[in-house]
């Protein structure tokens, strides 16, 4: 729930506001507040627990595309990296591993039949992270499975959505909103 600084309720509301700016209705926003998944940049979450929760959500919402962090978590945040590990576990272990239990078989069917794809957002070095639109040229030249380049209008919408997270807009995140390439270009690869 984003409760690292005891602001979980505030951050939930900010998330809903941000999603509203992006055209995502509050009914499609799910906040998981689980005691074993604390918001803490130094805590790695349990892979199996997180995979189970994410997969239940994918099934309940009939989701066919998941976008998550890569192994670098974009910022090195342990919780972000845990999300990548959980999705990788889900796809690699459950999809290709031994299918002994009914729930594993259901997950296997979910990924195969429902066509659920997982894309991971590429973490880039500090220089590329803060060169904004200049990274478009670099990103176009490098290998990737998907490349999303936002229009000026979409970039402004993304900035408005980021500004909804007022409790998190410390000085360095203000710089992020101004200069981050992630508000202009995102390169992803299939998991």
UniProtKB/TrEMBL annotation:
EC numbers on record: 3.5.1.89
Highest taxon listed in the record's lineage: Eukaryota
Protein name: N-acetylglucosaminylphosphatidylinositol deacetylase
GO cellular component terms attached to this protein's record: endoplasmic reticulum; membrane
Enzyme class (EC, first level): hydrolase
Pfam families: PIG-L (PF02585)
UniProt record similarity statement: Belongs to the PIGL family.
Lineage, broadest ranks: Eukaryota, Metazoa, Chordata, Craniata, Vertebrata
Gene designation per UniProt: Pigl
Molecular function as annotated in GO: N-acetylglucosaminylphosphatidylinositol deacetylase activity
Family annotation (InterPro entries): GlcNAc_PI_deacetylase-related, LmbE-like_dom_sf
One GO biological process term: GPI anchor biosynthetic process
TM region positions: none
